[in-house]
Amino acid sequence: MSSARLEDVSKDYALGRTQVSALRGVSLAVEPGEFVAVAGPSGSGKSTLLNLVGCLDHPSAGRVVVDGRDVAALDDDALSDLRAQKIGFIFQSFNLIPVLSALENVEFPLLFRGLPRAQSRARAERALDEVGLGDVARHRPDELSGGQRQRVAIARALVTAPVLVLADEPTANLDSKTGEAILDLMLDLNRKQGTTFIFSTHDPKVLVHAQRVLRLADGRLEAAS
């Protein structure tokens, strides 16, 4: 069973009287444990593809299957459960809550699980340790560097033990050295935990980290390598 599968998927958006095709007939499968890059210039459809796989949007045509479940067959509650239980998200803007500490940001997704506080705190502490940030657990985001904030975001994505992690341009707001370190960290976690990663990028320098590259242009899947 693949972690994610798209079957002839298209996505159209209406901009005033104009219809824009963000994806056009895309078919692909990402297997469990893969570390896959979605490459292409800005506007090629990378973020749209990740939003569809992440159940944040619906296709205009075609079929999206995540962890063996046809997304179209799920109601809003089931989609929310799928996102919360199976998918982790890493955003280029980090999306950390500024008034919470690093530890509290990582712990936040576990609050919806109904776990005892001691158990959720212990899991969050372990996740921060895994990304090398146990010593700044009490720091708020504005006290951390960009690379540290992205590591907190990775810990938050992994703390729920998802089967699939989606990272949209995770190095875009980082300098090249820090960006490479973040990609190395993601790859190391993929190898140790077997979590499937799909990350998008338009930077060819980070593609060397991927096991497989899916290339998009004008909403179409051009080639895989």
Kindly describe this structure:
The protein is built from six helices and ten strands. It has helices at 46-53, 76-86, 102-107, 117-130, 146-158, 176-193, and strands at 4-15, 18-30, 35-39, 61-66, 69-70, 87-91, 164-168, 196-201, 212-217, 220-224. It has a six-stranded mixed sheet, sandwiched between helices. The protein has a four-stranded antiparallel sheet with strand order 2-1-4-5. Helix 4 packs across helix 5 and helix 5 (146-158) packs parallel to helix 6. The radius of gyration is 17 Å and the shape is globular. The two termini are 21 Å apart.
In short:
The protein is of the alpha/beta class and about 220 residues long. The protein has six helices and ten strands, in the order E-E-E-H-E-E-H-E-H-H-H-E-H-E-E-E.
Topology readout:
Elements: E1 4-15, E2 18-30, E3 35-39, H1 46-53, E4 61-66, E5 69-70, H2 76-86, E6 87-91, H3 102-107, H4 117-130, H5 146-158, E7 164-168, H6 176-193, E8 196-201, E9 212-217, E10 220-224
Parallel strand pairs: 3-8, 3-9, 6-7, 7-8
Antiparallel strand pairs: 1-2, 1-4, 4-5, 9-10
Helix pairs in contact: 4-5, 5-6
